[in-house]
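Continuing from the previous page of notes. For each protein in this section, the sequence appears first, followed by its structure tokens. Read the first protein now.
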Amino acid sequence: MDVEGRFVEMASMMVRELLESETDQSVAHRWDHLERVRRRALKLAREITDGEIDLEVLSMAALLHDVDEPYHDKQGHVAKSLEKAERILLDLDYPEDKRPRVLEAIAEHSSEDDFQPSSLEAKVLFDADKLDGLGAIGIARVFAFSGQRGLLTSEALEWYRAKIERTIPMMQTEAGRQFGARDLAYVNSFFAKYREEEEELL
């Protein structure tokens, strides 16, 4: 399937334009995050051999999963993004039989909720989203988001540690776990270096 098809292209343009004017949108969940998650999801999908993945559904879900994430309401972002995603799918006249699958993957993508990803598309989206929170990109996103929220560096690091501890055991695919282990090692080395520099000042 052509994952750069008409619907994906139209959704990309619509979401990018929409987020440019959303001043409350988390800086860590703007267009660059959505597009990276889409690309990560497609990369993970190529590693999956135990089922068929609808790459268009996966791409659409990735582009819309955080389409409404105010920096001051992370807990409510799934419901907000679902509502906006549904309107966008309707505006695009996206096929009626595929809409529920896109929305299901979005509904199940957050580690803050108790949903267990049920479809292959949802599992891959979950992992792709979490991988964008690791490695050098993940660290940069954490501090951008924490700065927008007015957190101290120590508060940002504590929030990040807690999120990683919760998220890593929830990874859904073997490929996601492998990529995650690699990028987590980098994050842990950053934590260690931060502690070392702090201890030098004691």
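Done with the first. The second protein uses the same format. Note its length before scrolling.
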Amino acid sequence: MLVKPITFMNESGKFLKSLLSCNNCELDKSILVHDELTLPVGRMKISVGQGDGGHNGVKSVFSGIGKNLKRLRLGIGPKLNPEIDLANHVLSKFSSDEQATLEHHSLLFLEALKSLMTEGVEKAMNLYNQPLPTKI
């Protein structure tokens, strides 16, 4: 089951436990896919059992279902302009170069997610937590 919340991102974990339970989804088989400021655009990182890193949506999910969760973190890049509000940065559109980078790596992102689901977190981390070319 793929879930995209209709609540604000900061409240995305509010109903997650009951949603998963009602649909007979096991928590240990759940994967959280989310944006990550600390990774450059087009990079990804698979992790499990780490902190929320200040991400309020992740914090909400952890509050709802616990912290021992497999995650696929997709880089959106850091906020470069200090005058731009963090929320505006996160919600802004990608530049044409960033969009091209994301499209170039999109199949790799899907392969990593499939590996995480079928081969487990350790193998997926070994395969996909490697540096990717930053230019296409």
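What the second structure shows: Residues 15 and 133 are 38 Å apart (CA to CA). The chain has one domain: 28-128. We return to this in next week's lecture.
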